[in-house]
Amino acid sequence: MTTHATDTPVTGAYADQVVLLGAEPQPDPAVLGGKAARIGEMLADGLPVPPAFCLTTELFAAYLSETGLASELRGTDSRSARERVLATGIPPSIAEAILAGYTRLGRPRVAVRSSALREDSAGQSFAGQHDTILDVSGDADLLDAVRTCWASLWSDRASAYRDDDSAPGAIAVVVQEMVHADVSGVAFTVDPVSARPHRIVVEACQGLGEGLVSGRVSSDYFVVDDRTLEVVEERVRHKVTKCAPLAPGKIGMTRVEAAARNVPCLSREQLAELSRHALRLRSRYGAEQDIEWGMRDGALWFFQTRPITTRPAAGSGDRPGGARSPYVTPQKEAIEQGTLWSRMDIGEIFVGLMTPLGLSFARYYQQHVHLDCTSALGARVTGDPDLPMGYVQGHVYLNISYSAYVMAQCLPTRDQWRFTSRFVSEEVDLTGYENPFGRFPGGLTDALSIAFWLRTTANELTDMKARAKRMSSSRAYEFDRDRALDLTRMGRSELDMELKRRLGYFHDMHVGYMPYYIHAFGFYAVLAELCKQWLGDEGVNLQNRVKTDMSNLRTVESAKEIWSVAQAAKDRPRVLALIEELPLDGIEEALRADEEGREFWQEQMEPFLRAHGTRGPQEMEITHPRWIDDPSYVFQMIRRYAADGFSIDDILRRSGGRQDASHTVLKQLPLPKRRAVEAAISMYRTYSELREVTRMSMITSIWLVRNVVYEVGRRLLEAGVLHSMDEVAYLDFEDIRAYLAGELSEAEAFDRAKIDGARRLHEYHKRLPEPPLTFVGEHDPASAVRPVPDGEHLEGLGSSPGRVVGRARVIEDLVWQADEFQAGEILITRYTDATWTPLFAIAGGVVTDIGSMLSHSSIVAREFNVPSVVNTKFATQVIHTGDLIVVDGDAGTVEVVENS
């Protein structure tokens, strides 16, 4: 803080309506609004709060009166009223008073925030309902920011948040000195989600707190005992990005310095100081508080405090009431306690923690698509849609017990153990396990089911290649159709029809894709069994060679094609300079604006994005932009491939090009057995290839749905219902459907309390330990807290053979860190999916916290002959970027031999 409020009084007709907070007798809170009143009280109490002044509700009333808006806006709808205020200038006499207050503050850079009458009250927080404008400087920009805050009184999100049909009333505005904080966060004097007592919860991030509020940055999590001020829990996350000033008046995302990525944002002493002030505020107001704070050069500052208006609920599950069972609806106790749940290899689209929107979309899939996928596999009776899937801590699980029961109708999986054992990790011992759903009924029911499976299988074998061609062709058509449509010009009913059309395509592509996905695994299991019985150790080697010799997988093709695009950029020095020198979010626009760049975009980027652009991390998590929505990752890999000087031969040598040695191994078998193994290999290869071809159709169908959802989000942001597009992540997919169908109004579908609750629950899930890959019955997060092992030796699952020594590179955010990755480094991350493939082409080894032999990490590591160890559980906590480590993919171990 370099400026200070002066003693120069504000003069003129409206002098009394511009109040320096904390420095003089404060007016009634009714004219200051909730936020300003609290800031004034904290300043008066001597708390470290940046200087601020308030433009009272009376000044706002004077503005409406002098401009004639008071009568003009009467009876006007919210959107028209807001636009009218934004278009109306501030009368000179009022502007003079505002600018005099600014001068009295010392004319620093400021944050301009609303302070509505009931904002930050005990009944309603109104947090985020009105606009905040950061890093404002200069008279004109200040007056524009004030008018924007005034206009936000008519935002739809503020109107929806009011608990009655009252008129908007009045609004005050706080102008507060801007603190460009090094570290920011929130402090809760009670855990906002769990019910455990005596817990002050602190979340802290690098940079400004807006990154934390929006959910765009990683944050450290601390729990302080409010009796002793001792830290009783701490989770320090790898922090890659922060929200910070990019230029005067421009706030955006940038990188966290390498030295600050793995260290706690706050020291024990700073946490104690913060907690003491938090307890003081709780005592001062006689209520639990939600406090925003920041630190600059080690000095603590408070920006606002508000009462916590919702109390935490006991429990930690995703079902109402905090139940710990993954089931979406209550089941009999024997079922709930005896069900085997797994998230091993249930499709890369479901991997990892999902947002509330992603989870609700997964539930849509469960209710409307999953059972038809099961039917496509040959199951005649598919049962209750509530049973096949469940949810724990924001993660999606497959109900293995119910699925095994249903799939017992099919001849290859009549033995439930064959299906069950496929999805069990080492965390669960199934010795003596009995399926609580029992066995599928025999007699006529069984006979009908076998007949159905035989008919379905015959049709599948007849149609599988033709269906793949149809799906591939439809993908190109639907992709081009979407690019030609302008969703912004559609009315709500038209958008509803478009969503229904796309959900129909989503259904068909998933049902069409599922047999390829499951049968590829199934024929590999047949191959593994035959090799085990007839070939012993040589059979294991044969299996691995067969899996590895799939060099035509489209996931690997993406790495080769990005290399080709990178070479085309290298042939155009001007284009490569734009890609390498500009910020990621400005490259596409710069290329399109440049003559040579436009040519490169049309000849190279457009074909690549048409073929691969709908890829993205966690494809079912529709909040993640795809490569075509945000090509930042593609640009990062172009930088990396161009800089490293890799040739296409390097990639080809690592992926494919290996001689198939199966013939030599199989010669020792009698002809009938050899033919059986060869048939299993052939079917595995066929289904694997068809799976990869049709996978693009499946993930494109998700992207098509995403586009409609984000068009709704854009409209909600424009209407003021959402504060930023980041809040789309906290919507519910069923609410979006109901809103477009006209079944719910905007206010009913997008209730602010529900959005805020979803955000809090998601943040809570992010703080919890990673849930297990498999478990039986219920899951208690407390039981999952396992200490990081002593020493620096980790054991996991060796998923790709070989031994390598190299420097570690921890990757938390793929888009922001891809260009940091150096050829030959060991990739350390929590998990990977198909979008990570281009990094595998230059990695020396791969280590993940979670994974299995058939997870993406394992498959692609084997494809590129990269040693890999997965399911280490703690790698991202124990290993740091720059550590020298040994990865042994045969033994399944990782050892740190030299710290960075």
UniProtKB/TrEMBL annotation:
Domain PEP-utilising enzyme mobile: start-end pairs: 821-892
Coiled-coil ranges (or none): none
Gene3D superfamilies to which the protein is assigned, alphabetical: ATP-grasp fold, A domain (3.30.1490.20), ATP-grasp fold, B domain (3.30.470.20), Phosphohistidine domain (3.50.30.10)
Pfam families xref list: PEP-utilizers (PF00391), PPDK_N (PF01326)
Domain Pyruvate phosphate dikinase AMP/ATP-binding as annotated: residue spans: 31-314
InterPro entries for this protein: ATP_grasp_subdomain_1, PEP-util_enz_mobile_dom, PEP_Utilizing_Enz, Phosphohistidine_dom_sf, PPDK_AMP/ATP-bd
PANTHER family according to UniProt: PHOSPHOENOLPYRUVATE SYNTHASE-RELATED (PTHR43615), PPDK_N DOMAIN-CONTAINING PROTEIN (PTHR43615:SF1)
Protein name: Phosphoenolpyruvate-utilizing enzyme
